[in-house]
Amino acid sequence: MIAHPGVAQDSADPSGDIVVTGRGLADPEPRSTGIAVIDLDRLTATASNRLEDALADIAGLQSFRRADSRSANPTSQGITLRGIGGSASSRALLILDGVPQADPFAGWVAFPAYSVARLGQVRVARGGGGVRWGSGALAGVIDLRSATPDQLPPLSASIAYGSRNSVDAQASATFERGSGFATLDAGYARGDGFVPIVAEDRGPADRAAPYEQFNASARAVVRVAPHTELQATVQGFSDRRERGLASTAIASDGADASLRVVGNGAWRYSALAYVQARQFASQFASIDDARTVASQVLDQYSVPAIGLGGRLEVAPPIGEAIELRFGSDVRSTGGTTHEFYSYVDGAPTRRREAGGTTRTLGGFADLTWSPGAIRLDASARIDRWWIEDGRLFEQMLGGGAPITDTGFADRSGTEPTGRIGAAWSLAAAVTLRGAAYRAWRLPTPNELYRPFRVGADAVAANAELRPETLDGVEAGVDLALGERMTLGATLFANRLNDAIANVTIARGPGNFPGVGFVSAAGFYRQRRNLGAIDARGIEVDGEARLGAVRMALSYAYADPVVRAAEAAPALDGLRPAQVPQHQASATLAWQRGAWRAGTTLRYASRQYEDDQNSRSLAQALTLDAIAALPLTKAVAIEARAENLFDARVETGFSGDAIERARPRQLWIGLRASLE
């Protein structure tokens, strides 16, 4: 991983031959924001062999909770950056080959959908102002890029067996013919799981949380004209988990397809269309104080969701010193949750349907000018948004008149955003940069219309939520000693206006609007727009390559403060939930041919579990390790260890019991590659 303004990607071979790249338009770089890059070697050399493990190399990039996608509830895996907090919905935008990846209904990220075997590179731009991408890029953009034939062998496969009867397997194939190529990949993972509750707080009802996950994708790229290529992708995934109690099964499935045409002639352009289909189901249980009996309280048995979108981007030939890019995009997301709730003697008595749609239509222009050692960039965007078809329906299962049958008023509005920045190359090894920006995010249908539960706690939806906006500034310096050593540091100050948060209203027991009964062990909360969250901090990233040795460091300090104003005055001056003040990742690796070894140390400081800062999660320090020993030219044996010393990683509370994540996991396996 390195942090630097970046290196432009050429779309043609130096010899002048026209090649098929499989990429989108090359970014106009270096820019005023440091770019953290995770390359292919690192993606395939983490202890867990999972994407979220690789992303953890970028300090400050986090899911709402510390658990990964083997044990977390998917609804807690919205991603964010720079300490502005989060929830189910992501405040950073994850894209794959230009396609937004967040769940169309709720905004979380389905990490089991991605096999690292299919990725060639990840580029992370921290900070708002991703004007080219519009809604969702509040805290930054995580750009996943599919691997190309020059990065992959014709055939590769890996399989490993690990603790708690776990299996992890991935395979990929690459085919080249004439003016095109195709890639196929698949991944499978399963495990008996661990007990999420720490040993001293467990009761008879607590049990292990198993998981089983599968993903597959197919991608084809072909040249259809001398400077034009067609890129087509289909992908799908299946994810089954449990949360360590009876009646907490989770099922998530998805299928996506995209088509992109990229032109690399005098007028460069990219035209993209995509569709996302999702199906989600989740059960919820409450547990008595002695943790002897888990009782079902909700069955979210079906949540179909659809995302549709398109994007056109054009870069006309203006000159070597000036690059202009302009375009437009449209995105529609929506879905409906179907639920049974209000259980009596183990059986539901009511049903609920809630959902709606959101749409955005935006246009943008991005100008980069390079007068000598200075590079200036300015971009502007305007979006029109619509929130429509919102509905909440509740009825007794025995029939009769509806308890609730509300159609919420349609709303619309306009959001202008922009960015201005500069990068100044003082010398070949030193670049100064700075930027100011504004970004925004539209609430998801899940936030607007769907109540939910986490353990004994219940959160009501709010159909009147306003879009979030972020204003920010940053300044940084990048140092580079050739390709051997890089170091970057960034100071930032952000204000998240109208921040959407789960605000505590009362503690149970009692019946509360929008959620029903909450036990004495739980809290009643509602989604609300707070006044703001102010976040200031610093990020430092560095990498050194000394022969076969690679060292990488990433550190983030964030000091966010809630400015709750009238929405929740009791929260004013507190920290957002689930945001550590310090995060760090350090990797020491050695590789020579197929021989390799490495360790990764990660740290997260204490963080508050709730918005009232009444319960905290202890700091966590973990050590991962990996080693590979070649058996033949094509086959290597691989040993991996996650959290080698079994440090306690606290991730939340179930009643008064502490939940943990990421216990020690040992793996032994084989990795094969056919050149």
Q: Can you describe this structure?
A:
The chain is mainly β. It has one domain (2-674): Maltoporin, Chain A, CATH 2.40.170.20. The strands form 7 sheets. It has a 22-stranded antiparallel beta barrel. The longest helix is centred in the first third of the chain and has 5 residues, at 51-55. Residues 35-141 form the TonB-dependent receptor plug domain. It is found in: Cell outer membrane. Residues 252-644 form the TonB-dependent receptor-like beta-barrel domain.
Task: Give descriptors for this structure.
globular; mainly beta; Maltoporin, Chain A; disordered N terminus; Beta-barrel_TonB_sf; 41 strands; 22-stranded antiparallel β-barrel; six-stranded mixed sheet; 675 residues
Short description:
This protein is mainly β and 675 residues long. It is 2% helix and 60% strand.
